[in-house]
Amino acid sequence: MTTSTAQEGASEAAAIYPPPQRLVNPENGVKPWCSSMEEYETLYKESINEPTKFWTRVANELITWDKPFTRVSQGSLKDGDMAWFPDGQLNISYNCVDRWALQDPERVAFVYEADAPGEASKVTYGELLKQVCSLANVLTSFGLRKGDTVAIYMPMIPEAAVAMLACARLGLVHTVVFAGFSSSSLAERVADARARVVITADEGLRGGRPIRTKAIVDEALLTCPEVEKVLVFRRTGNEAVAFNPDRDVWWHEAIASQRPYCPPVSVSSEDPLFLLYTSGSTGKPKGVVHTTGGYLLGAAMTLKYVFDIHDGDVFCCTADIGWITGHTYVVYGPLALGSTSVIFESVPTFPDASRYWKLVEDHKITQFYTAPTAIRALRRHGDSYVTKHDLSSLRVIGSVGEPINPDAWTWYNNIVGGGKCAVVDTYWQTETGSHVITPLPGATPAKPGSATFPFFGVELAILDPQTGEELEGNDVSGVLAIKRPWPSMARTIAGDHKRFLETYLRPYPGYYFAGDGASRDADGYYWIRGRVDDVINVSGHRMSTAEVESALICHPAVAESAVVGAPDELTGQAICAFVTLKDGIEATDDVKVELVKEVRHRIGPIATPKTLILVDELPKTRSGKIIRRILRKVVAGEADTLGDLSTLSDPSILDVLISKVAAAL
Ligand code: PRX
C-alpha cells in the first residue's frame, strides 16, 4: 500500500476544531442546514435505515421531476446493476437554468473572472437560458439527437458550461476533455466516446499566454474522421487560427440564426448525462458514465449541506470543468441550487499570488473550494498576499483532490479563513460523482488532515486488503470501500461494463472498492492514506503510471520504462520515471529532454515527469516482471526497508539504483 506523506503525524490525538460559532449562531439568524452532530447523526441514520423515506424527501425537495419516480432505487453492488429513481423523468438543464430564470431572470448564474485581471463579467439566469437554448438549437441543426455524444474541449469560460447545459437540454451525452490534454489524448477520448461533434474555442488564455486550443483539436481530428462538425467559440479572435469551412462552424454565427428558446427533452433518470475520462491502472483511460437523476441529486445535496449554500451566496470552485470537480461544483451543483458560481479562467499566481484572495474580495465570495497543491503553493508566497484582502465574506473553505497535510490545513484555516470559517476536507472521486466523506460546516468538529465522516447515504467499510474481511470498530486501517449504492455513483465505463465490474465491484464482492487506503481512528474519523493501485496523484490530478509508461515507450530510444510516484512537498506526489535505453543509444541529458517532451506531447503538460532517471537495468523478478514496489521505496527515501528481495533477479543493481535516485532527487 502506498502511504501518503500528507498524513504523517495524523493521529487521533490531533487537534480538534469545533465548528465556528459564527456559523452555528450567525448574526443574520440563517442557521446552517445541519447545525449539530446530533442533527447529522439523525439524518445520517435515516439515510441508512429508512432510505426510501430519506431519498424520496430529498429528491423531491431538490429536483423538479417531469414525471415523478415511484421507486427510489434498484440493483446492487454485487450485480453492478444499480439504478436510482428509475421510472422518474427530468431534464437537468431545466432544473439548473429554467427554474431560476423563470423565477428571477436577473439573478446571477455565473461570475466570469477572465484571465486578465479586472475583466470580470456576469451571466444572469435569464441570459443563460437564452444562451443554452440557442446553442441547443444549433446542436439540433447539426442532426444530433438524444443519446449522441458531444466532446467539449474548452477554456474555463461560461460558454463551456453553456455547452454542457445545451447538451443536457437535448439528452445528448457530453464528454468534457481537460484543455491541457494533448491532441493525441483528445483524439483517444473523442474516438472512444464516438463523439460526432466537438465544441471548442479558437484559443485559450492562461496567465496572459495564449493556448492553441483549436489547433490541438485540428491535430486530434486528423485521426477522428467520424467527427462531422467543430463548433468554435471566438475567445481571443486571433485571425491566424485555422478554419475549415467544410467542418468548422463559428459559435457566434450559428447562434445568431437560432431561436433563443428550445424545449427541454425529458429523459429517464438513468439516461447518461456525461462521460468523463479518468486514469486507471492500465494505460487506457476509462470513460466513467454518470447518469441524470442520481448525479444531479448528489451534486445539489452535497453542495447544499457541505458548503451550506443559502440564498445570495457566491460559490467559487477553482477546478477546471475538465475534471469532475468542475462538473459537479462549478456547473451542476451551484446551478441546481439556483446559486451564483464563479468561473475562474486564470491561474492563482497571475499577475501575483493574491489573485484568489482578490477574487474573493471583489466578488464577496462566501464559499471557496480549491486543492491542497494550490494552498501549499500560495502559502509559500507568504501571508501578506492573503491578509491585504478583505476575506470577511467567506464562511466555508474547502479542499479536494488529495490529502491535505495538517500544516497546510492550519494555514488555510488561520490565514485564509481567519479562524472564522469552517474548513471542509472533502474526499470523493470521479466515480463517486459527489462528496462521500466530508465534514459539515455547522456540525462536524474537524481534525486537520481527516475528511471526517461519511455523507448521507454513504455506508463506509474498511477492509483487510488481503482477506477482504471488513474491519469492525475503530482504530483500524485497510482499504476503503462503500457498502451500498448511492445516487451519484458512476454506473459503468463507456463500452466496457466488464472493466467497470472488475475495477470497482469485483475486487471485494458486494462492495464498491475506492482504490484508496484509509484508517478509522479511535474517534471514528476517516483518514485517507492514498491510492493502493498504480494511480498517482499529482496536484490533485489522477495520473496512471501505465499511461506515462506507454507514452515513454513510444519514443524510439526507449527499451523499457517504469513510472512511480515520488513524495513531493508541493504537488503531493510527483512523477518519477525510470527508463532503460535501447542498445547503442547513449544516456545523455539531451535524451532525457527528448523523453520528457515525448510524454508532454503524448499526454499533456500535466503528465510531465519531474524526475527522469536513465538506468541500465530495472529491478525485476526472475520471470522478468518489473518490481515497482522497490522503485517506490527508493524514491520515498526508504531504501533501508525494501522488504522481501528474494524474488529480485539481480540484487547487485540496487546500489547503483539507490545512488542514481539520490543524485536525481
Ligand atoms: O486518492 C483519492 C484522491 O483523489 C482520488 C480521486 O481522484 P479524481 O477521480 O481525479 O477526483 C478528484 C476530485 C474529486 C481519490 O481516489 N482524493 C480526492 N479527494 C481527497 C483525496 N485524497 C485525500 N483527501 C481528499 N479529500
Automatic annotation (TrEMBL):
Catalysed reaction, written as an equation: acetate + ATP + CoA = acetyl-CoA + AMP + diphosphate
Annotated stretches, region: Disordered: 1-21
Gene Ontology biological-process entries: acetyl-CoA biosynthetic process from acetate
One protein family per Pfam: AMP-binding
Coiled-coil ranges from the UniProt annotation: none
Domain Acetyl-coenzyme A synthetase N-terminal intervals: 40-96
Matching SUPFAM superfamilies: Acetyl-CoA synthetase-like
GO molecular function: acetate-CoA ligase activity; AMP binding; ATP binding
Residue ranges annotated for the AMP-dependent synthetase/ligase domain, each copy included: 98-486
Enzyme Commission number(s) from the entry: 6.2.1.1
Annotated ranges, domain AMP-binding enzyme C-terminal: 547-625
NCBIfam families registered for this protein in UniProt: Ac_CoA_lig_AcsA, PRK00174.1
Family: Belongs to the ATP-dependent AMP-binding enzyme family.
Name recorded for this polypeptide: Acetyl-coenzyme A synthetase
Originating organism: Linderina pennispora
